[in-house]
């Protein structure tokens, strides 16, 4: 980005804005990491700037130096999250083997629940509140992608490469069964047969279930 500077002859010269320093970038990341932890635990309404500041180990005025307020931090997190969340579905390859493409997508979603449980809960909390800050992204990003991939799934079914089911409900089922492990992480951990890995066996189970469902 640039800003304008008036020259002696009255013309406007564009000069580059000063890039943030490494300390500023580090502090911004520190704030976002802390906010992710707080929002994933307490939701947007329950989270406070004081909690975020304490988690980040920074003062509240320091937080407000980088962000205008709680909503600005939340929106920054959601914007980053949407790209991460959409990537696995976007990579569903029309030229690939249909069943293996779907199963690979399921495996990636399980891995995301393993690696990004806080992000999943952040997303879930936003949706449960009616998506007040994310609705534009759902309309402009998620919906067109789901429309495109639902049409691809339907085409594979019409060709007899997948068993016939409702493509959209198939996607909803995949999200429900994979993101459950992140959104209900505490419950899964308590009920798990494995203390070391609560997701042990999840991929194999979901692979078997969806393979049976989708094999023509």
Brief descriptors of the model:
single chain, 70% helix, Tetracycline Repressor, domain 2, two-stranded antiparallel ribbon, Arc Repressor Mutant, subunit A, 2 domains
Can you put this structure into words, describing what you see?
With 216 residues, this protein is mainly alpha-helical. The chain folds into 2 domains: 18-67, Arc Repressor Mutant, subunit A, CATH 1.10.10.60; 73-214, Tetracycline Repressor, domain 2, CATH 1.10.357. The chain is built from 10 helices and 2 strands; from the N terminus they run ββαααααααααα. The protein has helices at residues 22-46, 49-56, 60-66, 70-90, 98-115, 117-128, 135-158, 167-183, 185-191, 202-214; strands at 2-6, 12-16. The chain has a two-stranded antiparallel ribbon with strand order 1-2. The chain is globular.
The quaternary organization reads as: single chain
**Euclidean distance between termini CA atoms:** 53 Å
Q: Tell me the fraction of residues in β-strands, as a range.
A: under 5%
Low-pLDDT windows of residues = 1-8
CATH third-level topology of the largest domain: Tetracycline Repressor, domain 2
CATH architecture of the largest domain: Orthogonal Bundle
Order of helices and strands: EEHHHHHHHHHH
User: How are the strands of the largest sheet arranged?
Assistant: 1-2
Count of helical segments? Answer: 10
Give the rounded overall mean pLDDT.
89
Overall 3D shape = globular
* CATH level 4 superfamily of the largest domain: Tetracycline Repressor, domain 2
Helix content: over 70%
């Amino acid at each position: 980005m640039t800003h304008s500077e008036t020259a002696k002859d009255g013309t406007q010269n564009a000069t580059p804005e000063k890039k943030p320093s490494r300390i500023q970038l580090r502090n911004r990341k520190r704030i976002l990491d802390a906010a992710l932890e707080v929002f994933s635990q307490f939701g947007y309404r329950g989270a406070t700037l004081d909690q975020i500041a304490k988690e980040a180990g920074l003062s509240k005025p320091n937080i407000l130096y980088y962000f205008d307020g709680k909503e600005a931090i939340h929106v920054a997190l959601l914007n980053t999250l949407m790209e991460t969340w959409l990537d696995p579905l976007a990579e569903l390859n029309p030229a690939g083997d249909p069943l293996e493409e779907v199963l690979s997508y399921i495996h990636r979603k399980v891995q995301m629940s393993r690696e990004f449980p806080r992000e999943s809960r952040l997303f879930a909390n936003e949706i449960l509140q009616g998506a007040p800050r994310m609705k534009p992204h759902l309309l402009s990003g998620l919906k067109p992608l789901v429309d495109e991939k639902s049409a691809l799934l339907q085409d594979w079914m019409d060709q007899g490469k997948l068993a016939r089911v409702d493509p959209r409900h198939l996607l909803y089922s995949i999200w429900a069964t994979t993101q459950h492990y992140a959104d209900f992480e505490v419950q899964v951990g308590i009920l798990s047969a494995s203390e070391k890995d609560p997701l042990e066996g999840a991929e194999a189970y979901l692979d078997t279930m969806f393979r049976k469902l989708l094999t023509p």
